């Protein structure tokens, strides 16, 4: 059942206001008080928690050094709505993150933190990834409560911080439950184009350092440039990516030309145009398959690096450094027969929408729930192709439809 015009107007206002907060990493607190107050005004019981760096350092997603994990001023907030005898029924989490990546404002047509309408499209940083999905989750729970359904259970809407930094809020909530009840399943409202995603790939972040020998550009033959060595390593990794793609036969990843991509995101080399570049540092994101661990993938790529080194006298004498940095994303998959998956698919089928399950080549907070034994499906409005993109946008009718479909899925799940 579609949400009412009144709730639709409130949903729009909620999304516009949330998008106006510049909640980049470490600044999530600027929206905390507003979220708590707004959830309370909508009739939710509210809950807050913050992550502990010492605890997160024990988790494989995060660095081992607590000092390298930024948790200050990064609260997460949740709203709870209960039905009938809540302890006699299931508890479903509707999860979304309200942190966003930075925006290069010069690449935007309008200020990224001043929501702008382009027809039925809402343009702002976080519109697709994923403040509008979070807003849809809030009003899905509110819409279900408005119907006063005859059922038992509860819906928890989680507004978590630090997803872009490895899932700080979600990881904290699964490592130490902030609620006085258990959670049975979750739906994460990431932008999936309103299709169910039941598998997410992982990713490994590695830093490569190479050493050469500097010389004047006019006598460059006296130096040893790092660039040809880097190109051979990059080509070796590209070959390995292709080999791994050819070996992949998972049915959910047949649509992707590269299911576990390798991306060299940054390269810094040299110090002066008239000097042979004698140092290089590159940051590499490596995809992790569903049946792999970060350790597995790191070992595979170290072996390929060793092969390149073995063919070079210079690299044998000046071995590269290859080490992890930042956060890692573990892969995750939920069985298709889990009730939360069937609830989403049944609702989509009832609305004559595509209910075929998909896999995603990115990671998400769903992995934290799955690791904690909480079956999880990704389902939300928008497309990941808009994520982190200039003039990021979402088609507003899809947000309203997401709120309605999420409400129906929540009711279906709680009734089963």
Summarize the structure.
It contains 11 helices and 16 strands. It is an alpha/beta fold. The strands form 4 sheets. A 6-stranded mixed β-sheet has the order 1-2-6-3-7-15, sandwiched between helices.
> Strand fraction band?
15-25%
Average the pLDDT over all residues and give the rounded result. Answer: 97
Order of helices and strands: HHEHEEEEHEHEEEHEEHHEEHEHEEH
Terminal CA distance reads: 19 Å
Mind summarizing the main beta sheet? 6 strands, mixed
CATH second-level architecture of the largest domain: 3-Layer(aba) Sandwich
Number of helices: 11
Q: Give unreliable regions as ranges.
A: none
Radius of gyration: 23 Å
Q: Tell me the number of strands.
A: 16
Main sheet: which strands, in order across?
1-2-6-3-7-15
Structural class: alpha/beta
Into which percent range does the helicity of residues fall? 25-40%
Count of all domains? 2
